[in-house]
From TrEMBL:
Reported function: EF-1-beta and EF-1-beta' stimulate the exchange of GDP bound to EF-1-alpha to GTP.
UniProt signal peptide: none
Alphabetical UniProt keywords: Elongation factor, Protein biosynthesis
GO molecular-function term, one example from the UniProt record: translation elongation factor activity
Protein name per UniProt: Elongation factor 1-beta-like
Domain of life: Eukaryota
Domain Translation elongation factor EF1B beta/delta subunit guanine nucleotide exchange: residue ranges: 135-224
Region of interest called Disordered, as start-end residue ranges on this chain: 81-101, 110-129
Length: 224
């Protein structure tokens, strides 16, 4: 059943609204609806302290910024008493009431608006997931083909590999035997972006690195 309020810009109308809101959170229930928005628009300014229920409701509505409301609106009509000196024609008054009944400050969402909202929500979730993604510290042994392999060029080839979420760190040469040395290198990876297995199989052991790299071993793998 629709509720009717009138002259909410003056004390008499606010008094009626004050009595109506006694014991209520919003116009049509416990959740904000377009009924609240319609009445809110009809209240010309923030009510004074003599209307505590209206003040509480007004502040609650004004603080809510949302593209849609989930409560079930029951319908509200806002009317205004015509001036005695200039009465409005009956047809015009009826049209004003009808237009007022159709007042919808937010309107129904279009398919395009829904799509944009869904894309925005998906982007936020993806961003949050990236922020929450863990990192790992890896120590890797990279072995050359033989003792004649140029280890400086080997390291340069390794460090030229660039991937999102990959950061090369400190390195040193360590003896293997028979005059052969291996490259021990630290790297930090973002777990959701870099797979160490893929790094080895698709980058370190294929050209151009394979000209210098014979094999790779993971020595240590620690979550950060």
């Amino acid at each position: 059943m629709a509720v009717t309020f009138s002259d909410l810009h003056i004390e008499a109308g606010l008094k009626t609204l004050e009595e109506f809101l006694a014991g209520k959170t919003y116009i049509s229930g416990d959740q904000i609806t377009r009924d609240d928005i319609k009445v809110f628009a009809a209240v010309s300014k923030r009510p004074g302290g003599e209307f505590p229920n209206v003040c509480r409701w007004y502040e609650s509505v004004s603080s809510i910024i949302a593209p849609r409301f989930f409560g079930n609106a029951v319908g509200v009509k806002i009317t205004s008493q015509a001036s005695s000196s200039a009465p409005a024609p009956a047809a015009e008054s009826a049209k004003a009431t009808e237009d007022d009944d159709d007042l919808d400050l937010f309107g129904e969402e279009t398919e395009e608006e829904k799509k944009v909202a869904e894309e925005r929500e998906a982007a936020v979730k993806a961003s949050s997931k990236k922020k929450e993604s863990g990192k790992s510290s890896v120590l890797m042994d990279i072995k050359p083909w033989d003792d004649e392999t140029d280890m400086k060029k080997l390291e340069e080839a390794v460090r030229r590999i660039e991937m999102p979420g990959l950061l090369w760190g400190a390195s040193k040469l360590a003896p293997v035997g028979y005059g052969i040395k291996k490259l021990q290198i630290m790297l930090t990876i973002v777990d959701d972006l870099v797979s160490v297995d893929s790094l080895i199989e698709e980058h370190l052991t294929v050209e151009p690195c394979s000209e210098y790299v014979q094999s790779c071993d993971i020595v240590a793998f620690n979550k950060i």
